[in-house]
Amino acid sequence: MLIKRPDPIRAAEITDQAVYRARRRFLEGVAGAALAGLGLEASAGSPLAGVRRGVVTTDEKPTSLSDITRYNNFYEFGSDKTDPAKHAKDFRTRPWTIAVEGEVARPAIYQLEDFVKPHALEERIYRLRCVEAWSMVIPWVGFPLAEVIKRAEPTSRAKYVEFTTLYDPKQMPGQRPGLLGTGLDWPYVEGLRLDEAMHPLTILAVGLYGEVLPNQNGAPLRLVVPWKYGFKSIKSIVKLRFVERQPVTTWMKSGPDEYGFYSNVNPDVDHPRWSQKYETRIGEDSLLSRLTRKRKTLPFNGYADEVAHLYAGMDLRKYF
Ligand SMILES: Nc1nc2c(c(=O)[nH]1)N[C@H]1C(S)=C(S)[C@@H](COP(=O)(O)O)O[C@H]1N2
Ligand SMILES: [Mo]
Question: 244: CA distance to ligand 2 center in Å?
Answer without folding.
Answer: 27
